[in-house]
Amino acid sequence: MASKTNSLEDFRKNREMMNEKIMDLNHLGIKRFFNLDHNTYQDGALPAQTKELLGLVASAVLRCNDCIDYHLEQCAKSGSTKEEIIDALNVAMVVGGSIVIPHLRHSISTIEALEEEGLL
Amino acid sequence: MASKTNSLEDFRKNREMMNEKIMDLNHLGIKRFFNLDHNTYQDGALPAQTKELLGLVASAVLRCNDCIDYHLEQCAKSGSTKEEIIDALNVAMVVGGSIVIPHLRHSISTIEALEEEGLL
Amino acid sequence: MASKTNSLEDFRKNREMMNEKIMDLNHLGIKRFFNLDHNTYQDGALPAQTKELLGLVASAVLRCNDCIDYHLEQCAKSGSTKEEIIDALNVAMVVGGSIVIPHLRHSISTIEALEEEGLL
Amino acid sequence: MASKTNSLEDFRKNREMMNEKIMDLNHLGIKRFFNLDHNTYQDGALPAQTKELLGLVASAVLRCNDCIDYHLEQCAKSGSTKEEIIDALNVAMVVGGSIVIPHLRHSISTIEALEEEGLL
Amino acid sequence: MASKTNSLEDFRKNREMMNEKIMDLNHLGIKRFFNLDHNTYQDGALPAQTKELLGLVASAVLRCNDCIDYHLEQCAKSGSTKEEIIDALNVAMVVGGSIVIPHLRHSISTIEALEEEGLL
Amino acid sequence: MASKTNSLEDFRKNREMMNEKIMDLNHLGIKRFFNLDHNTYQDGALPAQTKELLGLVASAVLRCNDCIDYHLEQCAKSGSTKEEIIDALNVAMVVGGSIVIPHLRHSISTIEALEEEGLL
């Protein structure tokens, strides 16, 4: 399913390009928020791996596919297995209800793309 | 702050009483959902401790104090430290924004009550 | 559980008093919205009874106890039975997830109060 | 507007394919949730037709186009007329506000597709 | 980036076409809501320019790209500068959290399209 | 209505006390977020007065009474009149729907308390 891999790759490129444009706005508050956001997922009292799972579940119950895709990749890179990611998404579905299911479907597509890339 | 301990205790009693009344409704779908919900936080691909942190963050970004209180207690009982819980709530605040802050304040009150009870 | 009946009665009085104050603001847009909101639940292509169930489920998944209480009473008055109301709340819980459960507990309290008043 | 019919058909195929992949994950909790979700809309204290309208309104106020499309089709199949569906969507718009309007526009497209297919 | 301009133009055309279809439904409640919605942003105690910024921030924290695009254009037309719009979006991001960031990225695209059209 | 004034005063004291406890946690990410949040409402491309109205509307559509109370006071202190605040809340109600009405009722109570204190 090369098309899906491309779709994830398109998301990454678009995300990076738009984030650069946002930085170029030179709005101090926005810059600081982006920096704060990035630091949130570094090792702290909780390891980065757990925090990425938390970010994934928060994104899933708030139903944002872009955020889900970003955290799915970070979950994979920080060492979570596919089974652990699915188990986290199950928590999101139970807390957030059937309205989360379309985002579970989306997640499976992205997980497939990450598997094809060898990241998961 | 004994009053806060009482408040947490009141929440527990009311929660248990109302859950029993819900079971007494004898609605099969509701009963099954409650059972499913309970099983969600058992050890699986992810340990119960991690799942409770996921439930806490999902509850915080969806901004439900009752759900937060329940998961705070379960986080404590499943072995998370205060520092880990605070780190998880920080993720919730960054993902969910300043609108989560009143729930962070609420969480601190409940964390104090759990500390007084020796659960955290 | 007289206290609960009083609590529902307090809600009604406070709601009516505050709505009058809102009308007294004399903001044309707000007045028109309140009028529009009232008309929404009149018989139309769907009967009022069904629309009140729709309003109840919308209120439950959006997790607003005041709105739930209002529509629970309207559901009772427009002819829905307790069993039908519980079945509607089950739909809300499945769509909206476990985060809806505290509002299910709240609903049961209000349903009890409506039963004591002979409205349900 | 054949393209729209195709779009609805694409949604159905993709939904079915992804749901099968989700079942293939063999996660017991997810499987049970999907089963529970399916049973929620069967005849009970309320008839399936009413429950599908409840599912539609819940989906609309929570603003999920995939969920809206699914329930629109189920509403049509369980016997609701276009006028009744529009009346239900009006309740959703009033409860959920103007933020629901883009989903009303989306619904109209899907309703047209269902009409072309003879389902509505 | 002509493609983006086209995309904004496509959104406008589709929005107008679908709104006409909604009016053609001849549902009195829906018609009145659309009229009420339109009047909300006229000069009142607050000038239209401020109200459009309010509509933009409300749309951003509720995370609706179509609503964001509409209000971005209205903000530009009612006299807000790009810097003011960015400052408003920053408020939305801080209140609503990192989950708003994908909508900030979307907003930047639309702002670029409005600049190319000479509207901003 | 002295009791309401006391209620607003209670909110302020509790908010300040809990915020101090949050600072005492010494979590760098949380501290930075609080600082960032505070700076968001300072004069920038938009004046503080407008930003507070934006914060109020964001809080109202996200339905957080504590956030509404905080921004209502800041709106009053930064120079908005009661009429302007009501006009902003009307935008919130139209965007967010009837589910916002209970928070409009709450806002009226707080506005009364601010009037009694001479802040509005």
From TrEMBL, chains A, B, C, D, E, F:
<feature type="domain" description="Carboxymuconolactone decarboxylase-like">
    <location>
        <begin position="31"/>
        <end position="101"/>
    </location>
</feature>
<dbReference type="InterPro" id="IPR003779">
    <property type="entry name" value="CMD-like"/>
</dbReference>
<dbReference type="InterPro" id="IPR029032">
    <property type="entry name" value="AhpD-like"/>
</dbReference>
<protein>
    <submittedName>
        <fullName>Carboxymuconolactone decarboxylase family protein</fullName>
    </submittedName>
</protein>
<dbReference type="Pfam" id="PF02627">
    <property type="entry name" value="CMD"/>
</dbReference>
<dbReference type="InterPro" id="IPR004675">
    <property type="entry name" value="AhpD_core"/>
</dbReference>
